[in-house]
Amino acid sequence: MPLEFPQPPDASAKAARSALELLRAKVTPPRSQAKVARKAVSREKTGAAQPDLSTGRRVYILDRRGITPGAGLKRAKAVGWRYTAGGSGGSSSRPVHAIAMAARDRGHVFNHIDRGPLEQETMKTIKAIAKLRQVRSGSYEVCILRIPSIRHIDALWLKNKQRGGNLVIPISSSSTELIEGHPYSAREFLGIVRELASRQSFNNRPRLPIASRTPNPEQKY
Amino acid sequence: MPLEDGLLLVGHMAPGAKILGADVGFGYIQGQIDAQLPVPVRIGWYPDPINAGHFVCLTGYDETAQTVDVEDPQYGSKTYPFSEFANSYHDGAGQWTHTYPIT
Fold it and tell me: How do the domains of chain A map onto residue ranges?
């Protein structure tokens, strides 16, 4: 099978199912609860979602320290798993969400529900690359590679399970240099990312005074 | 561009207002949103959260579940457990660094 989705740990899948219950409650809150416990400046209502735990994808984060020449993608850190929820079956018009689970020392922790466009784009990209000749003739493990600190890059990382190099396919970014849906070799991809990082400068540190921090008894983290 | 420049320009931050840290607590978020005020927040990307930043907005909460709704200009709508939002934004790539009190 050219594209393989590794089986997530049972604990991660179980925790994801629990998170989905939260998603369901959020999508269709009981009226009484919605009035007293849930407030929002604006809120988008969406349809019910179902999880597709069979296509969990391992998520890796790469930061600016990890893009040194010669390191390849070895310094990408495995941080958890991402599951599709909703809209995954046939012609369903239900919205597609993602449930992100973090792998921590103490176990698998619900990190967030993503209602943005990334999950839909990810599924579209997976479908498209599955048709590529170089993918059909190989065997790859499908992972997600996220580099948010450099042009908000999200990509599919196809780990080659046979002889040959890995492929990286950008899904989205704020860069025009990376072509979405194009299969890059890992080396080619990282060359572009390094170039983008060298040109990127942040200028958004607050300049105004910061109020002094006071202990907050409600703080839970 | 620091976010306060834009907020001052459009009249949604009081002159002389002080930016808050990331330790405002769930109660502060509740209070602002109950007052129909979204909460702009700066996220700092590791390994340099002080210099490499990104801005998002908290627009809702669930008191029972202790979650917050986030609108991210790059990634869209998300919901986080409050503690995960504070320390492990975007699969752990960043952390909450500053909070902007708007008017």
Answer: 3-26+49-199
